[in-house]
């Protein structure tokens, strides 16, 4: 009977710990990004006795233990909150947060971010959200760089970046002898200029073009020539064969003018500027996280530009992550080597801007588990009472 007492004690301890796991799930049913846990039990070592030949061994158990807590990383419901700096992952992956140098990295599904007093994107605990930066002067995300904190200096003036690349695409109509296309460019002082490309037909499929600029920020009215008589050649199918890329001297450097996407079909003009790098000097007014996890900055003139993209981490064994509180996880040796990327990269899910992910706790399941663990605890307590009664009877045999 003494053995039954100790066996029942293990059952009470295990179910008590399981009750703690379930109560934590219920308490976090409304916690953003929370992932529910499940208690896992294992039986303890057995006292085995092997009899004579061809007889089965006799095994007497020593109770039960809480061997593990399994974390369910299935997705919670995505709610579109409209919060400018909130984000959720629809699918696999974790946001990355760390210190100001990008170290001490932890991982989270809680995308309730905000802007700190020094204009960094942070979580509610003050950790810095790690993002991929953009390449200088462009909106192209630099995935070769390590994820790092991003600063959005809202309400402050920022300097301009000189334009070094621009593209004109579309159709150059065969029946027009003179075509003009303007595009906005920026110098290193942050001024906005108009670059004008005048294209002149010389013969069928043969064109020359002149490039000139006018400083609109300084209210200039006249254009200054940069290059003259650069050649463009198209074949009879309207495909460009020569002069697709031009190097234009501009603002103390060179500007690469990409004309390789032009066509020369016998139809109307469809020219349009595209992929212009640089930006004017302006004031940062606001920022938001868009779908795809892009950190978008809104300037005084209403234009929006990507300043970075939220980094997403993937683990071979996410079950090896260790809960740290505040919705954060830390990697352990059992998680394997993580891979990093952006939205929809390396198996990661889709990042939704202006949204949050709810807890994946199912209250009905938790209350059923709660009752089962309660009954298990009561049953083990009852066994202790029965064992005590039997021991009492044995003691009372001698009077």
From TrEMBL:
Xref: InterPro entries: Falgellar_hook_FlgE_sf, Flag_bb_rod_N, Flagellar_FlgE/F/G, Flg_bb/hook_C_dom, FlgE/F/G-like, FlgE_D2, LlgE_F_G-like_D1
Domain Flagellar hook protein FlgE/F/G-like D1: 88-155
Main location per the UniProt record: other
Domain Flagellar hook protein FlgE D2 intervals: 180-253
Lineage top rank: taxon: Bacteria
This protein's UniProt keywords: Bacterial flagellum, Cell projection, Cilium, Flagellum
Location of the Flagellar basal body rod protein N-terminal domain: 5-35
Residues making up the signal peptide according to the UniProt record: none
Pfam families: Flg_bb_rod, Flg_bbr_C, FlgE_D2, LlgE_F_G_D1
Domain Flagellar basal-body/hook protein C-terminal: 353-397
Cellular compartments annotated: Bacterial flagellum basal body
Family as reported in the entry's similarity comment: Belongs to the flagella basal body rod proteins family.
PANTHER family the UniProt entry points to: FLAGELLAR BASAL-BODY ROD PROTEIN FLGG (PTHR30435:SF19), FLAGELLAR PROTEIN (PTHR30435)
NCBIfam families: FlgEFG_subfam (TIGR03506)
Identification of the protein by name: Flagellar hook protein FlgE
Species per Swiss-Prot/TrEMBL record: Bacillus yunxiaonensis
């Amino acid at each position: 009977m003494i053995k039954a007492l100790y066996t029942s004690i293990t059952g009470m301890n295990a179910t008590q710990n399981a009750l703690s796991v379930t109560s934590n799930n219920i308490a976090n049913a409304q916690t953003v990004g929370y992932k529910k846990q499940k208690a896992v039990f294992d039986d303890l070592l057995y006292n085995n006795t092997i009899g004579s030949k061809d007889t089965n061994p006799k095994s007497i158990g020593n109770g039960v233990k809480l061997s593990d807590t399994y974390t369910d990383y299935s997705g919670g419901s995505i709610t579109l909150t409209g919060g400018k700096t909130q984000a959720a992952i629809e699918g696999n992956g974790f946001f990355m947060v760390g210190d100001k140098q990008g170290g001490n990295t932890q991982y989270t599904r809680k995308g309730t971010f905000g802007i700190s007093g020094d204009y960094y994107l942070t979580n509610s605990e003050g950790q810095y959200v790690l993002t991929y930066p953009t390449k200088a002067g462009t909106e192209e995300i630099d995935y070769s760089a390590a994820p790092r904190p991003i600063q959005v200096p809202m309400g402050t003036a920022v300097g301009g970046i000189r334009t070094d690349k621009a593209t004109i695409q579309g159709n150059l109509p065969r029946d027009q002898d003179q075509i003009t296309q303007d595009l906005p460019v920026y110098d290193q002082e942050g001024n906005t200029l108009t670059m004008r490309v005048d294209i002149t037909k010389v013969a069928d499929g043969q064109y020359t073009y002149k490039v000139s600029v006018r400083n609109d920020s300084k209210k200039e009215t006249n254009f200054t020539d940069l290059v003259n008589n650069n050649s463009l050649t198209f074949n009879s199918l309207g495909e460009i064969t020569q002069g697709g890329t031009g190097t234009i001297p501009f603002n103390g450097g060179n500007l690469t003018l990409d004309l390789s996407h032009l066509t020369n079909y016998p139809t109307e003009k469809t020219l349009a500027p595209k992929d212009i790098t640089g930006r004017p000097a302006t004031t940062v007014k606001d920022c938001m996280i868009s779908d795809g996890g892009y950190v978008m900055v809104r300037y005084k003139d209403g234009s929006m530009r990507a300043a970075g993209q939220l980094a997403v981490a993937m683990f071979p064994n996410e079950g090896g992550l260790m809960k740290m509180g505040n919705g954060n996880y830390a990697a352990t040796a059992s998680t394997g080597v993580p891979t990093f990327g952006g939205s929809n990269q390396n198996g990661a899910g889709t990042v939704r801007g202006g949204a949050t992910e709810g807890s994946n706790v199912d209250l009905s399941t938790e209350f059923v588990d709660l009752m089962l663990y309660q009954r298990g605890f009561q049953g083990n307590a009852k066994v202790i009472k029965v064992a005590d009664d039997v021991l009492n009877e044995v003691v009372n045999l001698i009077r």
